């Protein structure tokens, strides 16, 4: 008698596919990110990915949305001390990127041909950025940061953090103390934004 392959329960397919997709991105990078590879890793038929995600772009959308939702949560932590919070947001950005490299790759580091985030997913990205804007606005109200438009100041901070983190992920960081160097970068940025 031959062993029958049991079907994966429908409610397990989406989480299994996302887990497999993130593993593939971590291990093989964007070049290894195919429906066939994801299906094989998740132990589902390729058609299951089309049925549950409408294909590869749907998987990318789910990773993008999950990543920005997590990042928004991590950036949005507040303690009541505006200056501490804005520095903590900078630290949270780096921690997220280093701990969730596959998400970060989809969100920022690689342009997947044919993938364009939906309006809903773009709103999640805007929500993450808004958390940083909120921190900046609280600092401005207290007179800690320049009075330029908060979105402009937040963009400067986001771009600076992203640049450092991207170089670090790509192994183009020559600092022998990357953690300490990043803290100095944030401190310098904070001082540069001070009134």
Automatic annotation (TrEMBL):
Looking up InterPro entries in the UniProt record yields: Homeodomain-like_sf (IPR009057), HTH-type_TetR-like_transc_reg (IPR050109), HTH_TetR (IPR001647), MT1864/Rv1816-like_C (IPR025996), Tet_transcr_reg_TetR-rel_C_sf (IPR036271)
Q: Which GO terms describe its molecular function?
A: DNA-binding transcription factor activity; transcription cis-regulatory region binding
Do you know which PROSITE patterns this protein is assigned to? HTH_TETR_2 (PS50977)
Name the DNA-binding segment ranges: 34-53
Report the Pfam families cross-referenced here: TetR_C_33, TetR_N
Domain HTH tetR-type intervals: 11-71
Q: Which SUPFAM superfamilies match?
A: Homeodomain-like, Tetracyclin repressor-like, C-terminal domain
Q: What is this protein called?
A: TetR family protein
Instruction: Report whether Ribosomal protein shows up as a keyword of the record.
Output: no
This protein's source sits in the domain of life called Bacteria
What are the protein's UniProt keywords? DNA-binding, Transcription, Transcription regulation
């Amino acid at each position: 008698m031959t062993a029958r392959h049991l079907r994966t329960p429908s409610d397990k397919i989406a989480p299994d596919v996302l887990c497999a997709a993130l593993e593939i991105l971590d291990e093989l990078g964007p070049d290894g990110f195919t429906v066939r590879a994801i299906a094989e890793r998740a132990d589902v038929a390729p058609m299951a990915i089309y049925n549950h995600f409408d294909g590869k772009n749907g998987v990318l959308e789910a990773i993008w949305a999950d990543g920005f939702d997590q990042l928004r949560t991590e950036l949005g932590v507040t303690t009541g001390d505006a200056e501490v919070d804005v520095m903590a947001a900078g630290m949270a950005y780096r921690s997220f990127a280093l701990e969730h490299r596959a998400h970060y790759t989809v969100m920022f580091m690689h342009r997947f041909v044919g993938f364009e985030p939906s309006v809903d997913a773009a709103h999640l990205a805007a929500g993450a950025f808004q958390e940083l804007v909120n921190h900046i606005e609280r600092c401005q109200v207290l007179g800690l940061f320049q009075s330029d438009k908060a979105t402009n100041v937040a963009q400067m901070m986001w771009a600076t953090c992203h640049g450092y983190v991207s170089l670090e992920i790509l192994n183009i960081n020559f600092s022998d103390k990357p953690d300490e160097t990043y803290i100095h970068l944030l401190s310098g940025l904070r001082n540069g934004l001070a009134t």
